[in-house]
Amino acid sequence: MMHKEKWLKAVEMPELLEHPQLRKLIADWHRLVPDSRNRESFKDKLARLSPDRPFLVAALLYHLFPEPEKLPSYCIVSSEIQGGKNTLDDFFQEALPFYFRLQKVSGALMTPQLEKQAKLAIRMIASLLSDVQLVSVYLALRMQKLEWPEPLSEEGKQQTAWTNLYIDAPLASRVGVFWIKSELEDRAFQILQPEPYAELKRLVARKRDQRMMLVEKNLQEIQKMLHEAGLKHQVQGRYKRFYSIFEKLKRVDDDFEKIHDLTGFRVMVEHVRDCFTALSYIHERWIPLEDRYKDYISQPKPNGYQSLHTTVLNEEEEPLEIQIRTHKMHQIAEYGFAAHWLYKSTTESPHSPGEINPDKDSSHHRKILNSGNREKEDLTTSSEEFGKMPDFQPGFESYADKIFVRTPRKDIFELTCGATAIDFAYAIHTGVGNRIVGAKTNGTIIKLELPLENGDMVEILTSTKQIPRKEWLDIVKTRHARNKIKHALLEQHREICRKRGTEMLEKEFRGSGLNLSKMIRDGRMDQECRSRKNQSYEHILFCVGDGSIRCEELSGWFLETPKEEDTTKIENQEEPADQVLSPASGMATAKDSGATFVSKENFIVEGTARVNTRLAKCCQPKQGDPIRGYLTQGGAVTVHHQQCRSFRKLNPDRMLSVRWTAGLSKDKETQVQ
User: Fold this and answer.
1) Mean pLDDT of each 10-residue bin along the chain, 673 residues long
2) I need a labelling partner for 282 at 20 to 30 A (CA). Which of 335, 410, 589, 593 fits?
3) Domains observed in the chain
4) Would you say the pTM of this structure is higher than 0.70?
5) Which of 195, 198, 191, 181 is nearest to 155 (CA)?
6) Apex 138 CA angle, 136 and 139, nearest 5
């Protein structure tokens, strides 16, 4: 166990704060924060976390100068000149990179009040800070601002409290700094829901005396029990926090009387084996609730938390929540991963068999940051130079392959590392991505192919005349953007083919004497396309445009169909006895027995009888022109000019011999082709 004297030595900072290189900074602290209680409050928080020197100096700098342009000159003016360039004092040289990361995080704190945005903000802050000590320092700064708030409007207070409750508190839980988590939750709860907070405070106060008596009685009982067992121990009584009670009320239908565990107990022992020994004595003394036992020693939480949790019923059948842990586990429970670097500067306690020694476990060691002695010309260069930092320490989730980018409205989007403004535009909306023509990053116009940086605020510039381009596929990094671009390019190709198909069909139908526009309006085109091809007319247009369907095929559908009003019915004709039928259609063909039919249009159709005839509108043959006949599927004969282009595209097997009736020589007669 870490001795109390050594613990205090680890968290005291007078020597550091009195260092000559920090005298001007400390003087500014007293000048800008004249209230000594405010200064002592912040100093106490930093002392409890005991961060390394760079993080502590960065915290003081950000606490006093949250805006980089207000940084004092002594932070960047060197004590010596090397090669005509300014160099930073050692203290500030190693602290400024962390200061700039704290400053960049401030942009994530005004996110819209949505659950999804809160989760993204937590991930963004963790990614930008990327160090457990820096996250802990950030949380101390947030808590200090909550305790000593600046004058804000009511809306500003609500936004700050919402951020504390749904972003900062979960982040504190993730790194295991529970004393900050609890304070943030209770203070934010009081601001966001003052009436429920006041009512809950009244209900808790009503049972205060009863709870105090219960705690004292059971605390003495536990101490006596462990003393008789010969275990070195320390027992603490604890009270549930207001926000914790408020959350539990939701699970018991807001009935305060159903909450019996407003108090709890924490038992701290020397070794891991003592935890299980103490547990066995407690379970022998009181009745344990099986579904309330949890072993976080064998299976620690992701943030490193270890403890035994159990709930028992005492003689009055009141539930008692008891946590059992070693002293080291308690420090980790209170300070999270901060406890690991607190321990590194002190003498380690003896370890019992099976207990992990953090000195021998490399997973508990914080990675050493090597800032180097690189010179910086200005603050911007310093910030960029130190932008790429090591991965997270053990137990802290890493987002090394992700970046988080914000819109001007403070919405946060998570993208793959190396993503460009085009990726970001498609992440916002497909319509925005399709119309992007440029982008601004933090107010500066950038090229679309440049990768975005973590924490950037990006504004997308669009134009209604813009369309996706094929070369964008070589720029984007996300699968989502690539799929959207491919889909848009395919739609562009389909639209081009549809336009080409429309032009080709209009030309073909005009040449065949057909009115395409009227057929489209009447729905005949779509009806024929679905009945013959089982496809919509729009898809058939695409197929015509890309050459997979010939437009002559479509015009043939309508040239084969006779119009009843254009035909002349021939009555009182006898049907020939020996008529030859086509196997395919069952209609008379040009291979008939030789019967001849004379039509009312002054031409003779040989080999057929009792047929309807008409002159083709596409060519309108005149008396004496060389002509041909075509037997339609409806059984009528359409007479075309011998040179008719539409006739040449029809089925030769259905062509008939046709000739004029009067004054025609044999060379005018046409034969079946």
Assistant:
1) 38 63 88 91 87 89 90 66 48 88 82 88 89 90 88 86 91 85 90 90 78 83 90 85 83 74 85 93 90 89 85 84 90 65 41 32 32 34 34 52 91 93 95 95 93 93 93 94 94 91 89 86 90 89 89 81 40 35 37 44 64 82 86 79 84 81 47 38
2) 335
3) 4-192 (no CATH), 205-336 (3.30.460.10), 402-476 (3.10.20.30), 487-559 (no CATH), 570-668 (no CATH)
4) no
5) 191
6) 65
